[in-house]
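Query structure, 336 tokens:
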């Protein structure tokens, strides 16, 4: 009969789909990561600096003054600013800002992670190898931490191969930024290692998993510093928050987001938003976060498991698909 044959033809794929759903529901019940080190008090800053003013001289001075006041307003174990909150080259930081941040860090025990531009100044005075970077100041240390963005944005931070002629023709003032290493050391906040990423780098879960997997000191907390003012009042803000929640679920680690216009938020290791600021406001989000240690299946294997299952399904389709199609056609012919 046709009905039993139809049931048998869909039984295998239906069973496989059901098994995947059940496994997905059961995996979060396993404690893949555990709390590690003392909880951190964190301040995430949101300056709401207008994009059209960000790189004008007056706007740059105003942004630097604003973030100096916001950083030094109150101590915390970790204070984070948005991407390029200080829109100047690190070597050209105003002396009052640098001195105030250093003194505040030393006197209060606060670690500070701020966004600025990196670069190398040649003996001739030219700046080369610009980077989109985060710089970290830790209390009692003169060593400056540095994270350089690795996954750059086409046309915003580099010119794709073959398009230089177009940029020159249109006289677009774009230059190629220098890429940071794929795996960079974490920022140490007391005894808690913190892994940084910038802007849409948190789209790439495999890269964050690799950073945790291949680091000799895996981070217990993730931090994303971004500026979404480019996108205005759009769905991009909510989308970026959802992306960050996914990275927390994949890695079993809390994710902190310091943004210029929103969504500034703190997400726990289970992907729950534990605090956020209203978009397009100036403010500071003060939260406590608990870092974790251990590897989730995604951190261990990255995208390899998904790719392996996809290849197996494709192989199954190529191997058995034509035969199944022929049998269906034969049955239709017999029915006639």
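Result returned for the query:
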């Amino acid at each position: 009969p046709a009905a039993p044959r139809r049931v048998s033809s869909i039984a295998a794929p239906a069973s496989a789909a059901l098994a995947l759903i059940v496994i997905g529901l059961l995996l979060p019940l396993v404690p893949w990561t555990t709390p590690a080190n003392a909880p951190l008090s964190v301040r995430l800053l949101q300056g709401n600096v207008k994009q059209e003013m960000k790189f004008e001289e007056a706007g740059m001075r105003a942004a630097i003054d604003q973030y100096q006041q916001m950083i030094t307003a109150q101590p915390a174990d970790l204070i984070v600013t948005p991407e390029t909150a200080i829109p100047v080259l690190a070597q050209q930081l105003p002396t009052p800002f640098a001195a105030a941040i250093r003194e505040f860090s030393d006197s209060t025990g606060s670690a500070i992670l701020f966004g600025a531009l990196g670069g190398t100044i040649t003996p001739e005075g030219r700046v080369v190898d610009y980077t989109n970077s985060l710089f970290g100041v830790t209390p009692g240390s003169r060593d400056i931490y540095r994270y350089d963005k690795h996954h750059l944005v086409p046309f915003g931070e580099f010119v794709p191969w073959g398009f230089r002629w177009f940029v020159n023709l249109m006289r677009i003032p774009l230059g190629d930024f220098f890429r940071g290493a794929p795996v960079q050391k974490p920022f140490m906040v007391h005894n808690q290692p913190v892994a940084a990423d910038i802007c849409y780098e948190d789209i790439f879960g495999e890269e964050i998993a690799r950073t945790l997997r291949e680091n000799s000191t895996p981070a217990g907390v993730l931090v994303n510093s971004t500026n979404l003012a480019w996108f205005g009042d759009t769905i991009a803000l909510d989308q970026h928050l959802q992306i960050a929640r996914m990275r927390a679920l994949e890695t079993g680690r809390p994710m902190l987001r310091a943004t210029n216009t929103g969504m500034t938020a703190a997400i726990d290791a289970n992907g729950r938003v534990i605090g956020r600021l209203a978009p397009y406001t100036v403010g500071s989000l003060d939260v406590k976060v608990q870092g974790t240690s251990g590897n989730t299946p995604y951190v261990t294997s990255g995208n390899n498991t998904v790719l392996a299952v996809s290849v197996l399904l494709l192989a199954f389709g190529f191997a058995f698909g034509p035969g199944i199609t022929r049998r269906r056609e034969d049955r239709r012919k017999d029915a006639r």
